[in-house]
Design brief:
By secondary structure, the chain is of the alpha+beta class. The protein contains 32 helices and 23 strands.
Length: 947
């Protein structure tokens, strides 16, 4: 996957952004409590071939992460060959001299680990997490990928097709994908290769030859351009011996490493870039300025400035554009400071009825306010706490700590900056923030990017497309590696002795008011997660008011009887805590993450929002508009439309048979009284569960629960009964025609089993074989073998009285019928023939490993315990899970597939540009219902307006 700081901002950006604090006179804020982050303890050395090695031991985990970071990113793509670094990210998962293609998946997924990689502007990183006994095998495998990668025509062609599908899914099918992935860098930079899209150009990838590819690999994939980072449970002396054994023999090439020498010239005047895209429901505006590099002394101050502008619900941009003026549905900023001078970004996606000129003026006003007056001490401390607490949360996992070291090394040239950066942020003064705002964000040096719907382009105006530069192919004369014959391959080293995990021991107590409290001490890292789960969800939505339970949950932090929305946001963020709320189909939750010493104050706020929401009419109007604008965007995304359509198709006529988050029509009808009614009926202590996990003892947890929730009064009478949901719809085939869609979403859905079913463990093993992980059958057939999608998979959600099975993939529009055939065929194949022993063992390991990694985070453990409590599962299941998964037999998998995964009994939903696939789809589904997207009505049983 391609990554940049800007793209990560986009992926994290929710259009239904919560409203931020209103700028009204308030009492002076109390100083924000100081947040501390333990440093990452690590050691380092450099091999004679130039490979840098970093390691950090953690004896509390049964796992280890192995990461290799190469100092080659999108900026290093050759002229006329954009996307090469990203393409190589894909190719390193294929063959080496001694490893057939996908062996890395056998060594990771199949033993309960995972692997992934990402391409950034300045580097590409490859990372795995596996049980610690597999460390030697992973070191061997990474040395294979570094020293003897197979680069051939077949792999090049297949991975190029996958990259094209990734581009279609991430960029072309997303209404704002073109803005963030293509137009922002193109408009911001004139000279430096940061201006090129990291994901590349289809035309330039098509123009590349195998010689180009081999030359690029020879230039950059070498030990003196790489760093090995290992974090987890291992013996230090043995680790270093293995590093010498496997990486030491790799030779350092004689040729110097090619480096980018281009420098972006200073911007001397303001500029405007007008961009257009299909299916853009709301206009957007972004302002960019050239900024310093990551290692610049001004970088910490710009990061703090960024946090003041847009981090959290009390930030200035949300406050002004989203909350006060209500002209934007999302507002954002980003200090994108890579290894070489980068940029600073501020922007907004406008609300309905508002244009980019309003957004630009409002953004500039907030920048000017920071330039005119330094931030107050409380606001400055709050921004610092948010940044530092965010770093702490990222370091909760071993791979998160490895990433912190690698990112600092690649962008700042020194892994130690992962620790010293936090002190640098702490040292930023209000005057520093004002100074960098004045220095870098001058109004006369900004670039304004205006992004609107293609329908707004002036008559007669056409898009200016620059043809890819015609460049000659490289002439490669170096060695060519091929896969060795099977009998001549070096086998992976043996697996070591297993490290047994230490499972948390949850303890529970019921308060006098009926609140069930569960506490599990699980970590020495100073973090605690608190999860309040209420037994109500979308099933409780009144008829015609889809999304009522979801809106009730979303409104909880938007004001209580004693705290305004602004005060809740400001107080939580000053503590370095995070607070959120949401609702699903069967439950609603309020989630808190805080440092142990800040937990009493944070839990008092959490309890207040759960017990005493105000549901003020003005706040509801803000949330309503944000939600409606968010739905406008979602209704232009094929994958979102398919997901929305699934519930009305599968659960028609039941309490689950509507869109859980609501539709434009239902959201428009919600009133404060509707929300108050749901809260009054279901938000009561004897209908709730409180889970506390992390650095907290049971005694501390119970005392805090009593302090925060002990006065929550239990109403007379029992809580309302939950419904028995028994879906029995006839399967439907639905095609939603979305003209101009960049991809088609193909979904196969049907009812499944409840969590209490004896078939639960055979069901999850069956789903793991079919659609969980890179090596699942669906992904193998659709992505790996045919390059038809960036990823294909399936999921199984087991609820109280029923469940749902979903298989899905996104593909180019014309391939939708073929992808549907493949999904159906794999469902049938699983029912026809039991899986083999090796496949069954591997896919069980995927489940066991994922479960273990979830237990290692405070929020993951809280989610598991909360789920057990919600569905009446004993906590002994924590220890029994692995054994129950391992006990599933191949025949049970086949039998479950036969009984519940019959594709003939499943509904089909395809969303995309119908002209490319409708005729072929009709031959596969003679009763196909074709619905133009403009006529879609998810509140209607027919799914059509007026019918």
């Amino acid at each position: 996957m391609v990554r940049s700081a800007v793209l990560c901002l986009v992926l994290a950006l929710g259009l239904a952004a919560p409203a931020a604090a209103q700028r009204t006179p308030q009492p002076p804020a109390a100083p924000a409590a100081r947040v501390e982050v333990p440093p990452i303890a690590y050691k380092q050395r450099t091999l004679s071939n130039g490979l840098k090695v970093y390691w950090s031991q953690d004896r509390s985990t049964p796992n280890v992460t192995v990461q290799v970071w190469y100092e080659v990113g999108s900026k290093d793509d050759p002229q006329g060959r954009s996307g090469f670094a990203h393409l190589f990210e894909h190719m390193l998962f294929k063959a080496t001299r001694n490893m057939p293609a996908e062996t890395i998946d056998r060594l990771t997924e199949d033993v309960g680990g995972f692997n992934n990689a990402s391409t950034w502007d300045d580097f590409t990183n490859y990372y795995e997490v596996v049980p610690a006994e597999h460390l030697e095998r992973l070191l061997w495998a990474e040395s294979e990928r570094m020293g003897s990668l197979v680069v051939d025509e077949a792999v090049f062609a297949s991975e190029r097709d996958v990259v094209k599908e990734e581009l279609r899914q991430r960029v072309l099918a997303d209404p704002y994908g073109r803005l963030f992935a293509l137009m922002l860098p193109q408009a911001t930079y004139t000279t430096h290769p940061y201006k090129r899209p990291g994901i590349g150009s289809i035309e330039e990838l098509d123009a590349a030859t195998i010689d180009d590819l081999r030359a690029f690999h020879q230039d950059y994939y070498r030990p003196d351009n790489a760093a090995l980072i290992v974090v987890g449970n291992f013996d230090e002396a043995q680790f270093n011996a293995w590093v010498d054994k496997y990486f030491g023999p790799i030779k350092r090439p004689d040729a110097p490493i090619r480096r980018v020498t281009a420098q972006e010239p200073p911007r001397t005047k303001a500029g405007v870039f007008d961009g257009y895209g299909p299916n853009v429901p709301l206009p957007a505006v972004a302002l960019t300025w050239l900024g310093p590099k990551a290692a610049d002394p001004d970088a910490p101050a710009l990061k703090v400035l960024d946090a003041i502008l847009s981090a959290g619900k009390s930030s200035r941009l949300y406050n002004s554009l989203v909350y006060e003026k209500r002209i934007a549905t999302a507002a954002f900023s980003n200090a994108d400071l890579p290894a070489e001078p980068g940029m600073f970004l501020a922007g907004a996606i406008m609300a309905s009825g508002h244009d980019v000129a309003e957004g630009e003026a409002a953004l500039l006003a907030e920048i000017a306010r920071l330039q005119a007056e330094p931030p107050a001490a409380a606001e400055l401390d709050e921004a610092k706490n948010e940044l530092i607490a965010g770093q702490l949360r990222e370091r909760e996992t071993i791979d998160g700590r490895g990433f912190a070291l690698g990112y600092a090394l690649m962008t700042e040239g020194d892994a130690a900056r992962a620790n010293t950066e936090l002190a640098a942020i702490r040292a930023v003064t209000a005057e520093d923030v004002q100074r960098v705002a004045r220095r870098y964000l001058a109004a006369d040096r900004r670039m304004t990017i205006r992004y609107r719907s293609e329908s707004e382009r002036a008559a007669g105006q056409t898009e200016t497309r620059t043809a890819p530069p015609a460049v000659p192919s490289a002439k490669y004369t170096g060695p060519i590696v091929t896969l060795a014959p099977e009998g001549e391959r070096v086998a992976p080293p043996p697996v070591g002795a297993p490290v047994e995990p230490v499972l948390p021991q949850p303890v529970e107590r019921v308060l006098a008011n009926g609140l069930r409290v569960i506490v599990a001490q699980s970590s020495d890292l100073p973090l605690v997660s608190a999860e309040l789960i209420v037994k109500t969800g979308a099933w409780a939505d009144p008829q015609g008011l889809a999304g009522a339970a979801s809106m009730t949950a979303n409104m909880l932090p938007e004001g209580t009887r004693t705290r305004s929305a602004q005060e809740i946001a400001s107080q939580i963020e000053a503590l370095g805590a995070s607070l959120g709320s949401s609702a699903g189909v069967e439950s609603s939750s309020v989630s808190l993450n805080a440092l142990p010493d800040k937990l009493p104050a944070a839990m008092a706020i959490m309890a207040d929002v759960a017990k005493n929401p105000a549901f003020a009419a003005e706040e509801l109007e803000r949330q309503r508009q944000l939600t409606l604008d968010s739905l406008q965007v979602a209704y232009q995304e094929p994958g979102s439309i398919a997901a929305f359509t699934a519930a009305p198709v599968v659960f028609a006529g039941t309490p689950f048979g509507h869109v859980a988050d609501g539709t434009p029509a239902s959201i428009a009808k919600l009133s404060p009284a509707d929300l108050q009614k749901i809260h009054q009926a279901y938000f009561r202590p004897d209908n709730a569960i409180l889970v506390l996990t992390g650095a907290i003892t049971p005694e501390q947890g119970f005392a805090l629960a009593e302090q925060a929730f002990g006065d929550w009064k239990k109403p007379a009478g029992a809580p309302p009964a939950q419904p028995e949901v028994t879906p029995s719809p006839k399967p439907r085939a639905v095609a939603i025609d979305l003209p101009g869609a960049g991809q088609a979403a193909v979904t196969v859905v049907k009812p499944a089993i409840p969590r209490s079913s004896p078939a639960y463990y055979p069901a999850i093993v069956t789903n793991s074989i079919l659609g969980t992980g890179y090596s699942s059958r669906l992904n193998q057939e659709i992505r790996i073998k045919r390059g038809l999608s960036y990823g294909a998979g399936s999921s199984l959600s087991a609820r109280r009285t029923t469940g749902a099975f979903t298989a899905r993939a996104q593909t180019k529009n014309e391939s939708a019928p073929e992808v549907l055939d493949l999904i159906r065929a794999e469902m049938k194949r699983l029912a026809d023939v039991p899986p083999g022993a090796d496949e069954l063992k591997a896919r069980k390991s995927v489940l066991v490993g994922g479960f273990g990694r979830q237990l290692e985070t405070t929020s993951g453990l809280a989610a598991i315990l909360g789920n057990y409590a919600l569905y009446g599962i004993a906590f002994s299941e924590l220890g029994a899970y692995t054994g129950k998964v391992e006990a599933v037999r191949a025949e049970e998998v086949r039998d479950f597939a036969r009984s519940l995964l019959d594709p003939a009994q499943a509904s089909v939903i395809v969303v995309g540009d119908g002209k490319a696939f409708l005729e072929a789809l009709k031959t596969r589904a003679p009763e196909l219902e074709v619905i133009p997207a403009a006529e879609l009505d998810l509140d209607s049983p027919t799914l059509r307006k007026g019918r």
